[in-house]
Amino acid sequence: MTEITSSQRSTGFRRRVGLALGAGLLLVGLAAATASAKETASGGAPATGGVSAACQPVTSLTAKGDPRVGELATSSISVSYGVKPCVNGQAVSVAVSVSEYLDPTAVVYANADAPQNGKFVAFGVKVRTSYVVTVAVYDAATSELVGQLSVYAAAIPKGV
User: Fold this and answer.
1) Which long-range contacts (CB under 8 A, 24 or more apart) does 137-141 make?
2) What is the pLDDT of residues 60-108, one digit of tens each?
3) Are 28 and 69 contained in the same domain?
4) Is 159 domain-assigned?
């Protein structure tokens, strides 16, 4: 009968621990990849607005809240966006909106005939309230939704 030395036991133990740690890291990585693949926009809808991920006409969308009460005595959210049709020569129309996250009927800015690329400032937002900024792109001929993208923004004051 062969005798197992303590160095052989510790090598086997290290190997088993390494395999267990590797499998755990693999599971964590798979879970993270699955979570990021299911990233959602407002209302739990896919970020592409339910349209094929191969075509996303909204190329950029940023929103930044400004809690400072300026000359107009209201806080604001500055928005910048860009749209590029998926098909060359396709005519599209763009609609943009800013509404409260918890009350989508509380719309502070809406433009159903927005330019394809633009910037705007939504005034009248409440401090420390979450808002959803949405850019929706429609086919001009059929009025069918081609794609949409949403981001969240809030006007939160910085601490002193």
Assistant:
1) 137/57, 137/58, 137/83, 137/85, 137/92, 137/93, 137/94, 138/92, 138/93, 138/94, 138/95, 139/90, 139/91, 139/92, 140/91, 140/92, 140/93, 141/91
2) 999 999 887 655 567 999 999 999 998 888 999 999 999 999 999 999 9
3) no
4) no
